[in-house]
Design a protein that fits this description.
InterPro entries: DNA/RNA_pol_sf (IPR043502), Integrase_H2C2 (IPR041588), Retrovirus_Pol_polyprotein (IPR050951), RNaseH-like_sf (IPR012337), RNaseH_sf (IPR036397), RT_RNaseH (IPR041373). GO terms for molecular function: endonuclease activity; hydrolase activity; nucleic acid binding; RNA-directed DNA polymerase activity. Pfam families: Integrase_H2C2, RT_RNaseH. The chain has 472 residues and is an alpha+beta fold. The chain is built from 16 helices and 16 strands. The strands form 6 sheets. A 4-stranded mixed β-sheet has the order 3-4-5-6, sandwiched between helices. Strand 1, helix 3 and strand 2 form a beta-alpha-beta unit. Helix 9 runs antiparallel to helix 10. The protein is flat. About 1% of the residues have low confidence.
């Protein structure tokens, strides 16, 4: 009997060694079923334990499924040491041949393939190579159609085009950079290859320009590259912004009277007290900055908060005209101050932070405020409140009758002027670090998405998610 090789096969799997050898047998039985089914066959392996697969007592689920398939065949497994199985062992080694290196097949080998009637199996990958015009050839062909490049060629003939040259094939070069004609398809291809493909991954305009500058040249190349990167949708979505923040500071208008406009916010994440409080509700007047600190629970409903507001705020100051919630820096700054106060009181009060809130509120309102140039209580009552340290320094004002109203109005105007001056200073400081940005009606914009830990955005969780959505 003459034995000949009629087919080869291989796979790469992440199995343990024993299962890997077993998988090779199963794979061979599957793809060569038309040869083996109904015929007596013998399998030779260098894995000795595989010959005992039929008598093994304990099998995992994968091995059980494979054994059911093997029982369909009339076969026997033999052990053949690897040292003796030279041919098969050599074929299992890594091949360092490069498929891109084409070669002419010898005539004798072609006849051998024809005699064996070999054919591709359905698992085989075939590669087809086709020669196509290169980018340099396309550039050379279209250089003749570019008027500006032809003008350079004419100047080159009379020696008035320094740094330009032509090679043996007639291609125009600027130093060592090929001159790209004004053809949209060619320039778009160059820009796309330098920016969009996986080998580039969207570099910035400066990096992209210097990369292209090594090889290509055309008029206004740097401007074209900058424009291409600026309108790239992917870059707009994912790139971090390294410019100054957009938008100048827009302070809110100074109110006309006390407690006509208020701001409010919540300080959350506090330890739960014995009375069930776990957050603080801050209510601050926008004119004189007087604040009230109300302990609440995050589970309170809107009706419950409304009742608290009436009992703690409306009964003292009336109903405001405007309520601003979490849209200005005033309450954010108050948040910082009260958190610092709570940290200072934590040593004495521990988790019973609600007991120190009345003292924190009094201390805050009776302290000097830089924007007002006085304390909040002084702006509200016309004088500071007494404390154990300053018991007699508050004094008694001898103002009666209409003078009381005039004095209150005068103090109010002073407060308003001080606030406007403070806003002007804050705007001048902030605008230095910001840039003006204007929009027109129907303009499309990208909206920044605030990063939230553990939240899935665009089917992606964490840092790989896009920074912006749009254009909208």
């Amino acid at each position: 009997m003459c034995s000949e090789v009629i087919a080869y096969a291989s796979r790469q799997l992440n199995y343990p060694t024993h299962d890997l050898e077993h998988a090779a047998v199963v794979h061979a039985l599957k793809i060569w079923r038309h040869y083996l089914f109904g015929q007596r066959c013998e399998i030779y392996t260098d894995h000795k334990s595989l010959k005992y697969i039929f008598t093994q007592n304990e099998l995992n689920m994968l091995q059980r499924r494979w054994l059911e398939l093997i029982k369909d065949y009339d076969m026997e497994i033999h052990y053949h040491p690897g040292k003796a199985n030279v041919v098969a062992d050599a074929l299992s080694r890594k091949s360092y041949a490069n498929m891109a290196l084409g070669f002419m097949m010898p005539h004798e080998l072609c006849e051998e393939f024809e005699r064996l009637s070999l054919c591709f199996l359905h698992h085989t990958t075939a590669s087809v190579f086709e020669a196509e015009p290169t980018l340099e050839q396309e550039i050379r062909e279209h250089q003749k159609d570019d008027e500006k490049l032809q003008e350079i060629c004419e100047l080159l003939k009379i020696g008035k085009a320094p740094h330009f040259r032509k090679d043996e094939q007639g291609t125009l070069w600027y130093k060592n950079r090929i001159c790209v004609p004004n053809v949209d398809s060619i320039r778009k291809l160059i820009l796309s290859e330098a920016h969009d493909i996986a080998y580039s991954i969207h570099p910035g305009s400066t990096k992209m320009y210097y990369d292209l500058k090594e090889r290509f040249w055309w008029y206004g190349m740097k401007r074209v590259v900058a424009e291409y990167v600026a309108i790239c949708d992917t870059c707009q979505r994912v790139k971090a912004e390294h410019q100054r923040p957009a938008g100048l500071l827009q302070p809110l208008k100074v109110p006309e009277w006390k407690w006509e406009e208020i701001t409010m916010d919540f300080v959350v994440g506090l330890p739960r007290t014995q009375k069930g409080y776990n957050s603080i509700w801050l209510v601050v007047d926008r004119l004189i900055k007087v604040a009230h600190f109300i302990p609440v629970n995050t589970t309170y409903s809107g009706a419950k908060l409304a009742q608290l507001y009436i009992s703690r705020i409306v009964c003292l100051h009336g109903v405001p005209k405007r309520i601003i919630f979490d849209r200005d820096g005033q309450t954010e700054r108050t948040n910082q101050i009260i958190e610092d106060m709570l940290r200072a009181c934590a040593i004495q009060y521990g988790t019973s932070w609600n007991k120190c809130l009345p003292y924190a509120e009094f201390s805050y309102n009776n302290s000097y405020q830089a924007s007002l140039k006085k304390s909040m209580f002084e702006a509200l009552y016309g004088k500071r409140c007494r404390t154990p340290l300053f018991w007699n320094q508050t004094g008694e004002k001898q103002v009666f009758g209409p003078d009381i109203i005039q004095n209150a109005e005068q103090q109010l105007r002073i407060v308003q002027e001080n606030l406007r001056g403070a806003q002007s200073r804050q705007r001048s400081y902030a605008d230095v670090r910001r840039r003006d940005l204007s929009f027109k009606v129907d303009d499309h914009v990208y909206r920044k998405v605030s990063p939230m830990r553990g939240i899935r955005r665009f089917n992606m969780k964490g840092k790989p998610a896009s920074r912006y959505i749009g254009p909208i």
